[in-house]
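Lab notebook, bench 4. Continuing the backlog of folding jobs that were queued last week. Each job is logged with the same field layout so the records can be merged later without manual cleanup. Today's entry covers Adenosylmethionine-8-amino-7-oxononanoate aminotransferase, a 455-residue chain. Filled in by technician R.K.

JOB TYPE: sequence-to-structure
TARGET: Adenosylmethionine-8-amino-7-oxononanoate aminotransferase
LENGTH: 455
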Amino acid sequence: MSNSLASSNAALAARDLAVVWHPCTQMHDHESLPMLPIVHAEGVWLQDADGRRYLDAVSSWWTNVFGHRHPHIVAALKDQLDRLDHVMLAGFTHQPALHLAEELVRIAPPGLSRVFYADNGSSAVEVALKMSFHYWRNSGRSDKTRFIALTGSYHGETLGALSVTDVALYRNTYAPLLLEPILTPSPDAYEGEPGATPAETATRRLSDLRRILERHADETCAVIIEPLVQCAAGMRMYDASYLTGLRALCDEFGVHLIADEIAVGFGRTGTLFACEQGGITPDFLCLSKGLTGGTLPLSAVVTNETIYHAFYAEYRAGKAFLHSHSYTGNPLACRAALATLELFRDGTTLERNRGLSAHLARALEVFRDHPNVADVRQTGLIAAVELVRDRRTREPFPAAERRGLRVYRAGLERGMVLRPLGNIVYFMPPYVITPAEISQMVDAAVAGIASAVRE
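JOB STATUS: finished
OUTPUT FIELD FOLLOWS
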């Protein structure tokens, strides 16, 4: 077999399916759904082994904020490889980790001053949950053992993160292994009362949360939220006033606020951090995904001096936060993150994103009167189109029909990676996308949706 044939899509897919078990996948699907071996990437484009290109409209699971192989990040990684690849962060330090911590403290909401590193988003949530619980224990409040989460929340798939997740697809199978969160109704504008504005829905949901805190504050460690957009729940969006009111309630009732900005941080919602739009500082800020520009796994939890000093004591006091990962603060990942933050420094990225967001909004107008679209929603460079059987009644398509999968297949035929969440087609492109590519992305979705809604 020639080298070209041995490295074709078909050959690589066959090898893969013999040994690899893929994430978030029913492997049986690949008996009919082609596996895509990607061999090259640049900017917003992926290229398969047969030379075909695909626009990465979902930023490779929302990570690739500045596109693939950004030259500034690549150069920083090559330089770091000539200096230091890895060293444990227990008892050691290195320039990339300490410099990145300084930068995160500089740009984080006011009052956040301590950085704890982990490997990925779920791990960051685990750290924040454990740190909140442990803080109250160290402070003599061992009665605080529970967490409040929004309905429809998603915070990851390790057991602690899954415990504060309310997406049945991920949670139900493992329910016997999980903690039981206290669920408060989401401020999701789409699910608000008929005729209610997003702000009115937020106000109503804050009243719901107040009643829950009145009953449960004494046993509650923290409220955990995804600010502005509940991503895995279907890009559910809500008004920023909910963040402002939530911070006030947490202060009033003496519980922590954990902001999971793993998907929505680093410019995705129009500001560097989504929390800024509510004018708040959380007690714990969880970061990952775009932190390294989508090049290497890294996460961070940024917290405050009050939290930090609850653990600061003689060893024999037993107050230390003994949580670790082998690759905590990996120098290569930290250097990639520093290079990513440098790309924000000239101040043009957020301004350019606002222009791209406006262009995306105009392009999405094509769906406003579509008979199978119940909602078109957008926050910054996150947008979603809600497919339904009937827009007037909002009757959904049965999940078993997998209409979203039809959109995905149709998108691939047009050189577009659209990976819907159930029947919700969403767009979360890299920031280096052009207006023309945004139009191309939406045009592919128009064709894909037309194919998907045919009976």
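OBSERVATION: The mean pLDDT is 96.
SIGNED: R.K.
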